[in-house]
User: What shape does this take?
Amino acid sequence: MRPALRVLSGPAGTLLLVVVMMSVVMIVAGSTPWAGFGALFGGALGGPHELAETLAQTTALLFPALGICLAFRAGLFNIGAEGQLLLGGLAAGALGANFTGPGWLAVPAILAAGIVGGGLWGALAGWMKSRFNANEIISTLMLNYVAISIANYLVAGPLKSPLATGAETAPLPASSWLPALIPDTRLTIALLIAIAIAAILQFVFARTVFGYELRALGEAPEAARRNHVDINRLTWMAMGLSGAIAGLGGAAIVAGELHRFNTQLSPGYGFTAIAVALVGDLHPLWICLAAFGFGILEAGGLAMQASAGVPKDAIHLIEGIIILVLAAKRFVSTRVEVPAV
Amino acid sequence: MTQSVVVTLLVLTIIKAVPIIYAALGGVISERSGVINIGLEGMMVAGAFSSVVISFYLSPALGSTFGPLAGLVVGVAAGALIGWILGIAATKFKVDQIVAGIGINLICTGGAAYGLVLVFNQPGASAQVPALGGPNLPLFDLHAGAVALLAVAFVCALGLSWLIYKTPWGLRVQACGENPYAVKSAGLDPLKARLLAVTISGALAGLGGAFLSIGELNIYSDGMTAGRGFIALAAVIFGRWTPWGATGAAIFFGFFEALQYVLQGHVTWLPADAMQALPYVAALVALAGITGRVRAPAADGVPF
Assistant: This one.
């Protein structure tokens, strides 16, 4: 490969592609790249409050992306992070509204509730896969819709706060809020928790038997089976852990930003997170970087829409193209003629 | 309302099943050729959105009969185009088909949401556009054009069945899904057959989407496909990768979608939110209930 081509097939090429495509959607929407990117970066990085909002979006994407990374590494296509995040948030909100203990106990309890809520929802899909061989792509997506129904029902009925006009749980007492990293912003210590989880995941993949088995299941399931890896157990554990991490993300939004649960918890973080995980090459530390990139797009997208008139949804269009191009690039860079079996 | 509840339920079952039938038939042809089409949902969105846009622009010039028809044609073409893109990714570039399908879905849903703002100047939903016309048929409470699309779904099932089982090309497609190397050894190109199969798959899903937007309704709104592309994938499995099996499974799922509308007027002990979850729960139960009794094409999802 010529050197110029090699550079373009790496991250630099991806970045260039994003810039070109963003420019195109800005021009098509009747704006200019200068105005569009100006608004985007101004809105995302223009000051401490903007940066804090970008990092808050990064955090919201990072949890489900790390969960997705774990499942994908095991060859399990969990596209149900949205539902797992929602039910994690629901469990956290339900507990948080009724928990009367001191803050040092309440915060961990609320986060644990999120882990359990999301984890059970993920493990359900994993159990369906291991017990009934139910395709997890379809089941996790169906479970998203079921999760929305459950959450809608509970916040409009049994869990509805008598004081609230809309469908939401009672507010969490201020003692059980996640501490903010920058005062008066939505950026909380959840960011640090997410980064810690990324580091732990990296360690688990690289250094533990469990991580090795996960990767074996994803890359060579037949070899894993012949080496007496308990695939059924591994499947529901991987899906459960994947859901647990996404659920923790939901709990972090409840305890850190909304301070109550309602179904507007996520504008689709669980779906965007799939793109984050894939762009991060299913590598926890790269995913942190990818989440920051997507955090810029999410936070700056609103400003781009408001002051440059470029619809924010264009970002999802571009995410999809990036996924396709990255998937194709992997082929180009590893193009080897493999003889038939 | 003069009809009995049973008749309403039956008619509504067909109406709700038809978009799933189209997408499921698309899933069958694609998977039989060896390409898992996770992008069905996105192809339905492409069909639903583009048919509304075309009807919006062309109906003033072509009239409210031919404008929506042009929309229908473009909706099918848009689905086919997206199918072709997935096909190229799956054949020429040998990408992971599932990852590519996820990308396709994001492109289509994001693209439609972006397009809504550009064309209609508002997020969330399009303006009302002329829908497929004709007199309003009393039994269905739909225009004749939409009712025709109901019938066409079954014609497509028949046609696809013939195509797969009775034509040389269909046999080749089946062989591609089981053992592409054998096809190659016979001096034929499995990638060509796969590319065409996925393109047809997209066209069918696009037709299903167009039925949703300008057949049953007269608008496009974000999220209107509501996971039907994935329910269709469940129908493909439940129907054991056969056109009539998938059609039957789609009717089964359509029944549960229809049931919620019928129940909502008559049953009070089941919360409305639980009724909304019915089709998805039905798909989950169906997916789990057929354990061990089905076998996918051997090379389904395996790049050649």
Summary: Chain B is about 75% helix and 0% strand. The radius of gyration of chain B is 19 Å. The first strand of chain B starts at residue 136 and ends at 137. Residues 18-226 of chain B form one domain.
